[in-house]
Design brief:
Helix content: under 10%
Number of helices: 4
Distance between the termini: 76 Å
Shape: globular
Oligomer: single chain
Radius of gyration: 29 Å
Strand content: over 45%
Length: 809
Amino acid sequence: MKKAVFIILILSSFWSYSQKKVLQAQPISQYITIDGKLDETAWENAPIATDFIMFEPDNGKPITEGKKTEIKVLYNNDAIYIGAMMYDDEPNKILKEISQRDNFGTADIFGVFINGFNDGQQNFEFFVSAADVQGDCIMTDAIGEDYSWDAVWISKAKLTDKGWIVEIKIPYAALRFSGENKQTWGINFFREVKRERKKYTWSLIDTKIGTFTQQNGDLVGIENIKPPTRLFFMPYASYYLNAADGQKTYGTLKGGMDIKYGITDAFTLDAILIPDFGQTKYDDQILNLGPFEQQFNENRAFFTEGTDLFNKGNMFYSRRIGGKPSVDPDLNDNEEIIDNVQNVNLINALKVSGRTKNGLGIGVLNAITEKTFATIKDTISGETRKVIVEPLTNYNVLVLDQRFRKNSSVTFINTNVTRNGEFRDANVTGLAWDLNTKANTYNLSGNIKHSIINDTEDKNGTFATVGFAETSGKYRYSVGGDFVTKDFDPNDLGINFYTNYYNFYGNANYRILNPTKLFNSFRINYNMYAEFNKESGKVQDNSINANLNLTTVKNNYYGLGFTFFPLESNDYYEPRAENRYVIIPRKFEAWASVSTNYNHKFAIDLNPSISIADQSGRMAYGADIGPRYRFSDKLLLTYTFSYFRKNNNKGYIDSVDADDNESTPETIVFANRNVITYSNTLGGKYAINSAMTINLAVRQYWSYAENKDILELQQNGTLTPYPQYTDNKNSSFYSWNADLSYSWWFAPGSQVSVLYRNSAANFERVIDKQFKDNVTGLLNNDALKHIFSISVKYFIDYNAVKNKLRKRA
């Protein structure tokens, strides 16, 4: 009898956790004050979502009674409201570090995940920490959580003697959903108990299945809503005070506005008029000795917020818009550039994005940059002239993304760059697919892209990739390959460096799905990769890799890996010349990683690595070490020191034109060199409260390449001595950046930012190996540039203004 009862209980538990949960939203007419109290009568009778289940680390385990969690949802014509009670049997131990928006630090978290189309493919996620800090992101299984998206919503968290409470108002403007009278949304609720490093969800997220967004519950009961006009204005005003050596201090006043307009409940227009990006984070520049440009992160809010649709197929690199000019001016004898623009000014930009009730996502992004000149001076006559380095240019992205079966999609993408006059134009068209079986056990993904370049010499190229993977269970694998033609070039509005090759790759991995006595997580990966030049068939790259990643029951992370390159490869990119290559010897690489539990006041990250080549004296090694200390819930300091050294590195330094004999190829000059890099970064945060923080970011960087022997690249890819070359091609680049900022979110969507920045950088051919000299040489008035700026952004809701005017009338 006891056995029968036990079996019934097990089956009942399994049934309750495997069935989709449903929560009824309660309509309201009374006003709800977002104060974290849940004391309005509307909350009393609303249905409750409870019975949370652990997501990590012990997937599927019910939450304990001492951490019981209860959620209620209300709605009216303006917004939905979420009331959450997180019980805690040890409320004095709730972690509550105050941090910046989207960065929760060491604090308990509550979240709500909403999919207005209930199509299992994209969640709008809203988080509130126990310190009353907001965070929001867009979540897809393909990309993960994208915290660059920011919405305007209201929340309040309060600690109690029973745990903590969160009250949230999410206006419909922050969501996307169909226009049907009767709504059924996908919804899930999330709770993290930070001191235990345990995460729970209301609807079970089964980690055996390779999807997150398709395991929501249902929110029903939202009917006949009439959302108000979604029209928002965000005017801003900024003042910049600039100072530098040899330059008179001057001030600049800027002003402009962003506009958001809800075309329908599902589609939104975002426009930026007279943009100002003066307070964006500085770029971490490096000494770039390679054949390709350095890729930078996008820090401009307009090009990060809600752009997940435009990133389909990896065809859009937004830093192209307003980036470096596309044309290098031709110089006559005795001429030099005295005023060259580093970044082209953006005139305006807009984007339209949304999705129909049938799952068709539509995205259009358009931006225009201004006509830009460089100034050239004749060093003998002193005369100057201006040359166009970037004409008036239009950038456009079009995306059509059809979702189906709640877990698959096919996407059409087109990017187009049109420059005024006889300058280069570019068009790239792609088709991408992400197909999953009904049970989410297997995935077939890939894309095919075609580029057309109209320039002095027209070019057409193709890129194709396909991959197949098992995406569920403890044991998983993937295989795939790429094919890229020589003239594929998406770089006017995308970024891609490697062309003219085909490759094959495979992966096999094992992971635990539930904790053991030793580990909370444990995963082993095995990877193989082979790449060949499309024309010659020579090996361009090859590797065998194995790595281990684990988290202990005390929540310390450890990683270890090695990569073996068993065959010599042929690098067709480093020589910077068509059909030339340099042989890269076999080598072995190893790395390790340690990150201690951030819950402790003191924690540390350590990342050593080493690489040994099958060539006399050729090796590389280095390490990052990053201690961090949390003095209190308000004050945190982090520091990272990085050191990396390459001995007997072989790299390109110059090309020497052949004599008038056209049959003689140019001489490609390499150097046998040592490359040493140091960097120090310091970060600090002091939170006055959840809406007001002071932040510090400092970076010192120095890297130099000292040439020991000059070499000539032979036609067969080998290197031989070339002592007749005597030019100094040593390189030393050092830089300094320091930002001290104050941020105050004084109202929803409205912010005051105050920033002081000083920066300096220098590139030299003469190497001074005294570390102190390279640091202090930048920390003086001769080198440093100073910027002090104040920016105010104010969020205006058209409906709120309209209602106030009606009341006054």
